[in-house]
Amino acid sequence: MWGIPVTSVARTMFDLAGTLTEREVERAWNEMEVREYRVRLSVPDLIERYPGRPGIALLGRLAGDGAVGITRNELGEAFLALIDRFDLPRPRMNAHLAIRNRFYEVDCLWEDRKVAIELDGGGAHGTKKAFQDDRERDRILAAEGYTPARITWRQILETPDEVASDLHLILTPYPLSNGSGALRPLPPR
What's the CA angle centered on 66, arms 63 and 68, to 5 degrees? Predict the structure, then answer.
């Protein structure tokens, strides 16, 4: 009996990178990560085997550690558009952070301000395990002096002014006392 020929997830990504647009490959890569597909032959293995193949540079970037400004999905793109629109400082996107002998990938990291923002989409954060893991990570980040926060697609689209105002407060150092013990108000925006 003959089966239906199939390829591995890594090989499928490899083939898609040579034929689809960059945005389409980024979306497929995001789905691969959200679904936690793991295979013996990885994308980096295929890149090493076929260095001249079309799409290799894109796959190399996606398989890397996430350069500043590179996003993996529309939520990240919408968030960066909001950041730019309100003239807020750009974060490192998909940044790796080592804390307590654990490694986390933070969607948006302002390391100098110790602010870690997660862009919550239903697919990646909707499982019971993700729910538990997300709360544990937020707790650990807060205990280590980071300010963790979560922002959703709906919040970016429906209340961008509020999101930007909150981000401004989160990213601005605490206002200083005016000597009377009362906090000095933040400058108008």
Answer: 150
pTM score of the predicted model: 0.55
Could you tell me the residue ranges of all domains in the chain?
9-63, 74-171
Segments in the chain forming alpha helices (H): 9-17, 22-34, 43-49, 56-63, 74-85, 122-125, 128-143, 153-158, 160-171
Q: At 133, which amino acid appears?
A: D
Closest-CA residue to 78 (of 169, 176, 182, 163) = 163
Amino acid at 140: I
Percent of the chain's residues with pLDDT above 70: 77
Q: Kindly report the backbone phi and psi dihedral angles of residue 104, in degrees, each rounded to the nearest multiple of 5, phi listed first.
A: -120, 150
User: CB neighbours of 21 closer than 8 A, spacing ≥ 6?
Assistant: none
Classify 54 as helix, strand or coil. coil
What is the average pLDDT across 20-42?
Answer: 73
For 74-171, which CATH class?
Answer: alpha beta
pLDDT, tens digit (0-9, with 9 covering 90-100), for 74-116 = 788 889 999 999 999 999 988 888 898 888 889 999 999 999 9
Q: How far apart are CA 150 and CA 119, in angstroms?
A: 6
